[in-house]
Amino acid sequence: MKHSDMTVERTVTVRELAFCSGTSSAAIHELLEHDLLSPAVSEPEVRFAAEAVEHVRRIRRLTLELEVDYPAMNLVLDLLDRIERLERRLQIEDTRESTIERRGSHD
Prior knowledge:
Number of helices: 4
Structural class: mainly alpha
Order of helices and strands: EHHEHH
Distance between the termini: 52 Å
Strand order of the largest sheet: 1-2
Shape: elongated
CATH architecture: Orthogonal Bundle
Low-confidence stretches: 1-8
Helix content: 55-70%
Largest sheet: 2 strands, antiparallel
Radius of gyration: 20 Å
């Protein structure tokens, strides 16, 4: 397999994740304990997908600004993800309707 055929996923260490998300390594370990964060790789060291940075930032924001506690966090995150998916679907539908309307006005 050629190097260009391989997909390389960027991962970050606990320290890097903590630094990039504006929190501490202890907070990252606490999120792991509460199953709010899953490593991409566990051996030889714990590493996270780069997308985990935004995930941790979101959790931090919900904790600090809305005082969402860890037991409720998974539910809140799930609901926010559902809202985002629905908004994307609505956007797609709006785009389709606009395209249909434009085509209809050219006839």
